[in-house]
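Propose amino acids for all 290 sites.
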């Protein structure tokens, strides 16, 4: 953890803490001085104790250490998510062109495939105003599928990758992966960073569950989406939950109540400037209604 000590020192001084306040009973004074000079590594166990004394969590520490920029992986995910939600093909194309200059690692190839698929899908939507008959490039889908199938245990990065590209897989694959991931959801429900990841997954998989009329899975997905969207910070996903619960009511014969929920959700998405998502949802509502 060389050079992390320099960032620890900056945080400590900015907070007005003495070395004694931070390091007592963790490391010696002489070791602390040299650690803050970048001369020593330190174990993760001791490092976490120091962060606890400073009242800084590890995610924020790395954000500060990286000069208040996101780490490369999180930066990519944030940019991709923002551009995808806005149907911003130009930004996605710029990201793709940048990746073409990177070394051809497994991760780079997966990201390139992901970007190509998303750009193609938005071009299709611009023409046909829905995704109903959209089929992505088989080779790109295979690149992502091969990666996911060969990771024995998924963490949040793989879940984000699947969630962002769920609609690219065939319906059977989507439902298979979804059922596997539901088993891990209870373990992550108390982890703040996981909530939007799983909520996005549920939102992205629900259209397939409706097309396949997987009513038990729809109910299970909606139960979890309702649970994950209870806090005000998850208000967007609460709107998504209301939209899909309205679709379910329509499918169960209560058209009036269901349509009321759907139209409210669509209008709310437009009000909060999520017009591209509203357009996708409206197009899917038409297919369900018909």
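Proposal:
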């Amino acid at each position: 953890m060389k050079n992390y000590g320099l960032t620890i020192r900056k945080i400590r001084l900015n907070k007005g803490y003495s070395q004694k306040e931070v390091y007592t009973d963790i490391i010696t004074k002489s070791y602390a001085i040299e650690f803050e000079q970048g001369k020593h590594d330190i174990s993760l166990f001791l490092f976490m104790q120091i962060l606890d004394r400073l009242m800084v969590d590890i995610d924020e520490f790395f954000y500060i250490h990286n000069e208040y920029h996101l780490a490369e992986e999180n930066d990519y995910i944030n940019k991709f998510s923002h551009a995808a939600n806005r149907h911003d093909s130009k930004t996605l194309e710029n990201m793709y062109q940048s990746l073409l200059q990177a070394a051809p690692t497994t991760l780079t190839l997966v990201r390139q495939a992901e970007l190509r698929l998303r750009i193609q899908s938005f071009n299709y939507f611009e023409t046909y105003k829905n995704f109903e008959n959209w089929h992505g490039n088989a080779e790109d889908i295979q690149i992502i599928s091969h990666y996911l199938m060969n990771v024995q245990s998924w963490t949040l990065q793989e879940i984000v990758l699947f969630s962002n590209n769920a609609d690219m897989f065939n319906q059977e694959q989507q439902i298979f992966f979804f059922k596997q991931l539901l088993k891990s959801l209870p373990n992550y429900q108390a982890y703040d960073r996981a909530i939007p990841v799983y909520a996005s997954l549920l939102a992205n998989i629900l259209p397939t569950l409706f097309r396949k009329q997987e009513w038990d899975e729809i109910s299970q997905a909606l139960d979890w989406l309702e649970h994950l969207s209870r806090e005000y910070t998850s208000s967007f996903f609460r709107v998504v939950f209301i939209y899909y619960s309205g679709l379910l009511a329509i499918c169960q014969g209560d058209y009036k109540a269901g349509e009321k929920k759907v139209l409210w959700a669509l209008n709310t998405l437009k009000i909060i400037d999520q017009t591209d998502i509203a357009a996708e949802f409206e197009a899917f509502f038409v297919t369900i209604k018909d």
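The chain has a mean pLDDT of 92. The two ends are 59 Å apart (CA to CA).
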